[in-house]
Hints:
Layout: H1 3-27, H2 52-76, H3 95-119, H4 131-153, H5 161-165, H6 168-197
Amino acid sequence: MSFEVLIAQAFWIILPAYIANASAVLVGGGTPIDFGKTWKDGRRILGDGKTWRGLFIGTLMGMIGGFGLSIGAKFINQTDFAYVGLTDFYGFPLMIPIIFSICFGALMGDIIESFLKRRVGKKRGENWIPFDQLDFILGVLFFSFLIAGFLQIIGLTCGNWFMNSFSIWHIIFLLIVTVFFHILSNFIFSKIKSNKKI
């Protein structure tokens, strides 16, 4: 497999998670998932940054993007670019639970990281390297692994989508590039904030 093909496959798989994560930030607000409650350590369970609206709409937007990719893959894989081998997430209807696991997994990874972040005394917005950068990718890997395995166990798929789609090189690439994108986006965001104060 060439490096270009690996990049294309990795981004194709993870794009729904990126969409879900970005959408949750953009449309967030409203009722916090923890309803403003504190844990037994006296700190918030999650914080105001994790809301039900962000979770539901973020997951929905990511899934819509994923459905578009599934349709797109069917067309691309019938062209001269078929050698890239883009996944269609097993097509309809199996793409629904698979893409859901990617999008929901991304946001749950972020939520779990937020819970652990509060437990170690980190405040909202405070850096917690490398967990801030990797939380949603780890969530994607964990939840999609579970769902793909479940679909295989109950006989809905003749193979395991996760094992067929993720190689160790895909995972390593996604972990590295996600850290880079996270650092770059934080840098751009801080620049925008500082320019507004001038």
